[in-house]
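User: quick one, sequence for these tokens?
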């Protein structure tokens, strides 16, 4: 485990073996980082956030609680995972809101998914397995497994494989990865790996 001297890692956080937390990053209490994670410069990992193994959180990304991030996921530079569907600084009477005045909701990022630079995932949403969110996208709805989404609001423009490349049509409802040759089947607007 490598923690930069300028990082702020709460003693109640659980940092997995081989993980790195770089300069000016903050990891809050009860956060759990799996093995071999990399937390970039200035990134923020909120209270109780759970990261799987081999997760990369790039510079200045903000991962607010109660986010859950699967193994091998990637969160790009300055990406944001929100936690308040209707944020307000004050309540209707004008009194500043405190932690007990609202219920945080989280973003779930499944295994192998990637969130592009400066993308925003507006909780509560689920980013499916091996999906990819393009840089600068704003995700306001769940993203299916193996989907490539871009734009504001984010919309699906292609299917992608585990290698991160767009799948090419092989025949009706069958898709192929141009890098690995792996086959994927489309059923009812969803993609599944062929066994």
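Assistant:
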């Amino acid at each position: 485990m490598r923690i930069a001297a300028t990082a702020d890692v709460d003693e109640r956080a659980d940092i997995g073996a081989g993980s790195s937390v770089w300069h000016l990053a903050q990891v809050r209490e009860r956060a759990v980082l799996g093995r071999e994670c990399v937390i970039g410069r200035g990134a923020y990992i909120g209270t109780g956030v759970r990261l799987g193994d081999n997760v990369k959180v790039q510079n200045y990304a903000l991962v607010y609680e109660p986010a859950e991030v699967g193994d091998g996921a990637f969160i790009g530079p300055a990406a944001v995972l929100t936690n308040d569907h209707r944020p307000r600084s004050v309540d209707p009477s004008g009194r500043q809101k405190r932690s007990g005045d609202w219920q945080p909701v989280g973003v779930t990022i499944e295994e192998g998914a990637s969130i592009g630079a400066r993308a925003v995932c507006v909780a509560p949403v689920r980013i499916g397995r091996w999906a990819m969110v393009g840089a600068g996208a704003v995700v306001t709805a769940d993203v299916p497994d193996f989907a490539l989404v871009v734009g504001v609001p984010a919309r699906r423009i292609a299917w992608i494989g585990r290698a991160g490349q767009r799948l090419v049509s092989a025949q009706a409802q069958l898709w192929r990865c141009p890098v690995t040759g792996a086959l994927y089947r489309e059923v009812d607007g969803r993609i599944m790996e062929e066994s």
